[in-house]
Amino acid sequence: MSVGTEYRYVMEAEKGKNSLGTTKKGIGPTYSSKATRNGLRIGDLLGDSAMFEEKFRTLAANYKRMFPTLEVDIDAELARYREYAEKIRPMVRDTVSYLHKAIGEGKKVLVEGANAAMLDIDFENRFVKETGRLLQERGHEVGVTTKRVRRCGWLDLVVVRYTAMVNGYTSLCLTKMDILDTLKEIKIGVAYKLNGKKIEYFPSSMAELSSVELNTSAWDKAGNPSSAQMRLNVVSAPAT
Fold it and tell me: pTM surpassing 0.85?
């Protein structure tokens, strides 16, 4: 919703240099509204229009109280969403029963997400200087929405191991391996150290995570363009 987008713009602007650098598409306010139980759902949009309007006006008023400079044309917004409601109505289903019915019929279900695990965490294993620029340029690492150059880092197996425990995946697809061919050395993160000691868990706080030291294993490629044959057993190399 535009009110969420405008809210994010104002909120990011007030943070100044501490801004998160979000896409400003209203995703954060949507999650926030869900947590505080004052958000609007598809069921509200397609249900009683008077109730939807009341909830929308209340939500907009809450944002306005927090940020007085926020400007929202509520009537125009409501008119726009009445049109949206009729367009999407034929496509809306209860996904739980719909998917369980499909699974019961032996059909395969593909679940795809837009964001990766741990995307909201600011890791400290990013490339620096020439190596980072090489990956950004050869890998075309530019945000689709923001057009900002993405921050890139070595493959972090600590994160891979943790996300495997959380998400339960059984296989992993490594992409863009060919863009590493020009590097003489490739590093892979294999362990975290905190206060000089190796830790066996993934830090749950930003304060602790920002203090960890990433131990890496180095694979000396000597410029040999054979990255397609790379195997994960390279982590047996001495940690640096």
Answer: no
